[in-house]
């Protein structure tokens, strides 16, 4: 989000895992507000440098995520470049290597689940370090963060529909959900339960059956972005929205948890120019870290944890109100708000 000749990140470690041979990257963008939080992403990349680029961009977004959510934590991310044909035993080696790298960071970075990793994987990482969120309850954690993430997304969607249509009621609202993984599935469930008409797609066609069981209509991935809808909900991997693709979108707003859903920062301006409201991903998708922090750091009970996650909707509402009053697009208000808090704590 910033390009200068100086590293914007506080610390970046890249290792070849001694057990697995896999490239593992830990990017700590900022610990100005506290230990850096961010998930551990496990997926193949063509070159490990692509994984590094992902880690750098994702960890910066985590800094804005934690800042805007009001957490006393900074932003980081771990990327494990998945080797071809990963066997289950090799997966354990990989996660142990990741855990050892996290341990060398001495608590500056705390990991959690992300694309390609689950709470069971957090348990395996937890054999090597205690700086890990969302282990299963049987291992002393509080489990998967998907529900919290999805709850925050649905609150954000309600805020946006209220802003656009004068009602937070989702009855009859059309949502197009792009990405039906762990988080996407809960969003679909909550949205259908609230009366929404949910169209779903995923790159994995095997997900269709589950989507239809929940009462969603399946659509081909190629058609998902151009299908007429009220709210487009990116809930898969990043880079979905490109500058060239803006003109084919048929939605009033984009509100989803996929991290770095814009292929580049300029897309936010293009969406604004096209009259499409883009709710910043790093705000909309904060429920996972907010919930994990509330449960595992502050030991809050479930109802208070959910209240905290729901505040994402209010924060977004404040940003939309200021955006209108100041004639500044929401993404700039959000980034400014996140950076102002960091600056108040001395971030250069
Ligand atoms: N994948 C989560 C995110 O992007 C990361 C996370 C979840 C980190 C839960 C810690 C706890 O926000």
What does this entry look like structurally?
The chain is of the alpha/beta class and 348 residues long. It is built from twelve helices and twelve strands. Helix 5 links the parallel strand 7 and strand 8. Helix 4 packs across helix 5 (182-193), helix 4 packs across helix 10 (287-297) and helix 11 packs across helix 12 (330-344). It is globular and about 55 Å long. Bound molecules: phenylalanine. Phenylalanine (PHE) binds at residues 37-39, 112-114, 133-134, 145, 259, 285, 288-289, 292. Phenylalanine (PHE) is lined by residues 37-39, 112-114, 133-134, 145, 259, 285, 288-289, 292.
Can I get a quick summary?
The chain is of the alpha/beta class.
Rg, Å, rounded: 19 Å
- Major sheet: 6 strands, mixed
Tertiary shape: globular
Structural class by secondary-structure content: alpha/beta
Arithmetic mean pLDDT: 96
Unreliable stretches covering 5 or more consecutive residues: none
Strand content: 15-25%
End-to-end C-alpha gap:
15 Å
- Percent range for helical residues? 40-55%
By DSSP (H or I, 4+ residues per run), the number of helices equals: 12
SSE pattern, N- to C-terminal: EEEEHEHEHHEHEHEHEEHEHHHH
Number of strands: 12
Q: Which hetero ligands occur in this complex?
A: phenylalanine
How is the topology of this model organized?
Elements: E1 11-16, E2 23-30, E3 36-37, E4 40-43, H1 48-68, E5 74-81, H2 88-104, E6 109-110, H3 119-125, H4 146-165, E7 174-178, H5 182-193, E8 197-201, H6 208-213, E9 217-218, H7 221-224, E10 229-234, E11 251-254, H8 266-273, E12 277-278, H9 281-284, H10 287-297, H11 302-326, H12 330-344
Parallel strand pairs: 3-5, 3-6, 4-5, 7-8, 7-10, 8-9, 10-11, 11-12
Antiparallel strand pairs: 1-2, 2-5
Helix pairs in contact: 1-12, 2-3, 4-5, 4-10, 4-11, 10-11, 11-12
Bound molecules: phenylalanine.
The site of phenylalanine has 14 residues, from helix 10.
């Amino acid at each position: 989000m910033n390009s200068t000749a100086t590293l914007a990140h506080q610390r970046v470690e890249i290792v070849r895992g001694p057990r697995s041979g896999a490239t593992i990257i830990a990017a700590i963008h900022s610990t100005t507000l506290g230990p850096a939080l961010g998930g551990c992403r496990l997926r193949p990349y063509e070159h490990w440098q692509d994984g590094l680029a992902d880690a750098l961009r994702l960890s910066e977004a985590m800094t804005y995520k934690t800042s805007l959510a009001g957490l006393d934590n900074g932003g980081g991310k771990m990327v494990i470049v998945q080797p071809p044909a990963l066997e289950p035993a090799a997966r354990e080696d990989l996660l142990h290597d990741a855990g050892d790298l996290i341990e060398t960071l001495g608590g500056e970075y705390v990991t959690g689940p992300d694309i390609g990793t689950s709470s069971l994987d957090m348990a395996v990482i937890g054999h090597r370090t205690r700086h890990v969120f969302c282990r299963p309850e049987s291992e002393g954690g509080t489990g998967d963060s998907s529900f919290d993430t999805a709850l925050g997304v649905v609150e954000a969607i309600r805020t946006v529909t209220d802003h656009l249509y004068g009602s937070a009621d989702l009855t009859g609202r059309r949502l197009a959900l792009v990405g039906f993984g762990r988080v996407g599935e809960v969003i679909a469930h909550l949205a259908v339960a609230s009366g929404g008409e949910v169209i779903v797609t995923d790159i994995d066609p095997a997900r269709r059956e589950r989507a239809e069981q929940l009462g969603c209509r399946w659509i081909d991935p190629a058609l998902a972005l151009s299908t007429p809808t009220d709210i487009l909900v990116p809930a898969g991997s990043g880079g979905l929205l490109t500058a060239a693709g803006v003109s084919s979108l048929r939605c009033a707003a984009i509100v989803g948890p996929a991290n770095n859903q814009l292929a580049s920062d300029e897309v936010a301006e293009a969406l604004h120019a096209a009259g499409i409201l883009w709710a910043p991903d790093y705000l909309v998708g904060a429920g996972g870290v907010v919930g994990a922090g509330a449960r595992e750091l502050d030991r809050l009970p479930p109802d208070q944890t959910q209240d905290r996650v729901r505040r994402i909707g209010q924060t977004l509402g404040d940003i939309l109100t200021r955006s209108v009053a100041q004639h500044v697009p929401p993404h700039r208000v959000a980034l400014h708000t996140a950076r102002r808090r960091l600056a108040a704590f001395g971030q250069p």
